[in-house]
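Section 3.1 - Work completed
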Amino acid sequence: MKQSIAQVTLIVPDYDEAIGWFTQALGFVIVDDVDLGHHKRWVVVAPQGSGGANLVLAEPGDDQQTARVGDQTGGRVFLFLHTDDFWRDHARMKAHGVHFVEVPRKEPYGWVAVFEDNWGNRWDLLEPTGKRS
């Protein structure tokens, strides 16, 4: 049996705002953007060249979901963005206004720094050990 996680849903306040942030600040690409009617869309973005999971961007459907925008994990790091060049991507992201909550640090598992998306969810930018020293 072979399985993999293909997509993860991220609740965002507005489709177009989220598409803009992910494509500009992080350099992601749009995989799908399909109108489902009734003010709903199927919006999927992914890092360029990714072979991993994609992000499904979803506007909240009720007050409970709205309350989760920017805090899907109670303040913990939610998503891990792997890179083959930490310093290239760190510089690009900073130039596009991405807020890093810490300075980069070298850990046994690689170079890492926590950043927040436009809504406050925490991410790791991570270049795993073995990719580059």
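Second construct:
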Amino acid sequence: MEGLYSSADRLMVDFNTISGINCSTVDLSVPNSTGTFYTTGFCSACSRLQKDTLRNLKCENINIYSCLQSERWGGKYECLCPAGLAFINTTISKGDDEKLGISAGPFIMTELSEVNEDLKGMFGDKMDVELLVEAKKLPVIECSKVSTYADVLFMLSSYMVERNSIEMRILEQLAQNESEQFYQIADIKNSKAENYNYPIESEKMLQNYIAQGDKTASQKVLNEILGHIFFCSGGNFNVIKARTTELIVLLSRAAIAGGADVIEVFGMNYDYLNDIHNCRTLDELNKWLSNVLIRFTSAVFDVRTMKHSDIIMKIIDYVRHNYMRKITLNDISNHVNFSVSYISRIFKDEMGSNMMQYINKVRVDNAKLLLLNNEIPLIEVAYLCGFEDQTYFNKVFKKNTNISPGKFRDKRGQI
């Protein structure tokens, strides 16, 4: 629960800064949790007075109950305590076994005079002056703002849960990266060292995957390249950082080719080329470079921000999985269940090119990778990428790259 309590502490500090309302937590992972948790001097004074005069706690378990109710009511639940003061409740969890309730309050939603009347009605002539003094210290929140603060608390709790998940995924990814790089180095050592060549083709693959915004494939190829860099450096960390700096330039160019904003990429480049000097170990460098890769692939033109993102993403996904065979607009229309005229119009409006132009771009991008392999004949490359004849392949390839497939191969993609 340590990590969950740490997240809850950050959440409560942030919410208090925004709203001025104190928060507290309770462990909800314990079956049949009982008790009352106090957030202010008012709650402590009220609890003491209840025990002295009423011989019990009218508010016992009310916040625990309200936190659990928040799960049933969209992640947030507002309630009043027996003294008429308000609370906002939510939960954060990690898996099925760790769950914390978070209660923000108490705060006043009415005039202080009305609160005083409620307290007098509850305690009668046993009213304690200390309780009235503590009530004056509580924040007063307009009724119209309570729902907004409830939304803010819920959004913060959701963010903290996702942040925990992201941090765990980063740790898992780093472990996977190190494992892949270890085996890559082992493979290099087991091969004949005198015949060793740096895998320039892998850099081309990495550029292509970044341009497509494919984070998973990009990371896999990056791990391969890093394995080679770590092996070739002989353990010299300065050499590794120098080669990594070269990779940053390669990553940025690929992101721009994929549609990323040039100014944004140049700004990231400037920051990254300064940040790399702060890395002192391979672990730091590895983690930092993985984050850089995510930023560059995320900067690539993202269809999820588009008005018709669902349809566009379905079209893109269909093309990427079927580019190697003949695709007609009717095929795409049937796949997304909209008319050809409709999808043609929205695709053109959102993407800036028609669907056939996009299909050919995907085919050309994949042809670039195949052309790096001299063992595959040009006519076979055309066929594998969905072109029906080599003449049309040559025409489309040159239109997209300003160079013929043959010259692209001769130059090893250096265009």
